[in-house]
Amino acid sequence: MRTVGLFEAKQKLSELVDRAREGERIGITRRWKLAAVLTSAPPETSLKGVFASIKSIRKRAKLPRGFKVKKLIEEGRV
C-alpha cells in the first residue's frame, strides 16, 4: 500500500481516486500516522444505495442537546 500525506492527497485527489478505482490501495496520513485508506467502491454500489444508507444513519444518529444539523452543515462538519 502506498501512503501519501494529507496535503499531497488534497493536491492529487483526482489522480489518487483514479488509481484507487483501478485497484490500488492508498493510505492517507495525517501527522505521519495513517488516517484513512482510499480504495475502490464495490461494483454493486449505486448512488441511490449510498443515499439510502446515509438517510438510515441520520435517522439513527442522536445529536447532543443544542446541536442542529443545519449549523453543523454550515460549519462544514457534516
Q: What does this protein look like?
A:
The protein is of the alpha+beta class and 78 residues long. 45% of the residues lie in helices and 19% in strands. The protein is built from four helices and three strands, in the order E-H-H-E-E-H-H. The chain has a three-stranded mixed sheet with strand order 1-2-3. Strand 2 and strand 3 form a beta hairpin. The radius of gyration is 16 Å and the shape is extended. The mean pLDDT is 87.
Protein traits:
single chain; 78 residues; alpha+beta; three-stranded mixed sheet; 3 strands
Largest beta sheet, briefly?
3 strands, mixed
Overall shape: extended
What is the string of helix and strand elements?
Answer: EHHEEHH
Figure out the total of helices.
4
Mean pLDDT: 87
Q: What spatial order of strands do you see in the largest sheet?
A: 1-2-3
Low-pLDDT windows of residues: none
Note the gap between the termini: 29 Å
- Provide the gyration radius in Å: 16 Å
Q: Tally of extended strands? A: 3
**Percent range of helical residues:** 40-55%
- The secondary structure category is alpha+beta
Q: What proportion strand?
A: 15-25%
